[in-house]
Write a structure and sequence with these properties.
Shape: elongated
Strand content: 15-25%
Number of domains: 2
Distance between the termini: 46 Å
Radius of gyration: 22 Å
Helix content: 25-40%
Amino acid sequence: MVTQVVQQSALVLNQNYEPLNVCSVRRAFVLVFRGKAELLAEGDEPIHGVDAVRFTSPSVIRLRDFVRRPLPHVRLTRREVFARDNNRCQYCNRQDGDLTLDHVIPRRLGGRHEWENLVAACRSCNHRKGGRTPSEARMRLRRKPLRPVATPGMLFARYMDHYVKWRPFLRGWVERRRGGRPAEAAAAGGD
């Protein structure tokens, strides 16, 4: 049970409350214990120490010092390409659970394995296209493949359902990703 608690995740916020990353509860506890971060939201289960001492497990922490970091980027993986393409085939627009990756310009013709050349395709469209370009196969892409921009909303939206205590700290950032008004603007301007 103790190992389960420290292997859960905690949200790390910068000094200005911008979401920075997700770390283990163990790492978050060490940051709070050493005074490098403050506890904003407690986890559900305590951390048991030596001699039956119980410590509060962190769920959300805020760093005491501002951290400058480079802009995050989205790693090129199958899952991220499918997410960018909304889990739809980019040729027939079918939402198929059995998607494949397709190189728009085939590798044999010099196409590279990069964001701008990869799309999600159902098996039948990928087979129909084969080793040809879309124009040679008389197929049309629904939209041009582009590198996604890594916004905090995009990076942290997937945690919103599982980590309920994180919602107040991520709500404005995730709404920006979904195209809604940020929570700060809605509260200030009212609807």
